[in-house]
Amino acid sequence: MMRCVIVTGMSGAGKSTALKVLEDDGYFCVDNLPIGLIEQFFGLIQNEKEGGTDRDRVAVGIDIRSGRALAQLGPVLDRLRAAGVRFQILFLEASDEAIVRRFKETRRTHPLARDGRIGEGVAAEREQLRFLKEQADYIIDTSQLLTHELKTELEKIFVEDRDFRNMMVTVLSFGFKFGIPADADLVFDVRFLPNPYYVDSLRNLTGEDAPVRDYVMQSETARAFRDRLTDLLRFLIPNYIRAGRNQLVIAVGCTGGRHRSVVFAGELYRSILGLPDCGVRIEHRDMEHDNERKHYGERT
Q1: Measured between alpha carbons, how far is residue 16 from residues 9, 46, 147 in Å?
Q2: Could you give the CA distance from residue 169 to residue 142 in angstroms, rounded to a whole number?
Q3: Of 6, 176, 212, 231, which residue is 20 to 30 A from 51 by alpha carbon distance?
Q4: pTM over 0.85
């Protein structure tokens, strides 16, 4: 059976990356196809398939660059469905903050922000693409994803045919002295837990080392807090999913982000891993604060 994917979404959310990934995985990809040619294109692909070609995976990139013609896409998709053409819509999403940052970093101009006001362009784009997001089979929020993580998610869906989870939960450890993460949805302070920094043999280790974890979690208070917080998250996450959320950032902070927050983030990560309808990832923002391994400079 032929698999046809329409790749769309917000400018700066990773559509070009998605098309490259699909092309590398054997999809025949066409980007920025004029709206008026979509029906003709799918018809040609279908005729080729019936004629014996081995091309069975196709991806088409469509986005705000279509201009005024984008308003014609809804009726086009309706006609394709009525004609029996089976396709899926992949919508790449990202927060306003992430999109603005990416445009500033690349010094690109947003398609709807010719006067330089990126935020206004993003707002207008969201409104114009709303109908596509509502019809999307898959919505991936790339605000917190590294490029290789987006690639992994895409391959799960379009290569391995594994179940996709629209909700991505990020458990993020951080240090309060470096600031609360701007993209955090929930923030928990674990500075009340025993501090390994004051133990000479533990100071130069991190929360990923077993001796530090054992030191922090030997506290009955730490175990009780973990269990109660796990219960809270197991209640909240399904409700966020039902409310249509695509991402949730759970930030756990201690003083420097090297010991207690890393331990506790790991505990929460393992506690909620495997919840239905969501993917879970972990990130340690400040564990190696002076190290170039920091993830915040590697966003998709």
Answers
A1: 11, 25, 11
A2: 12
A3: 6
A4: no
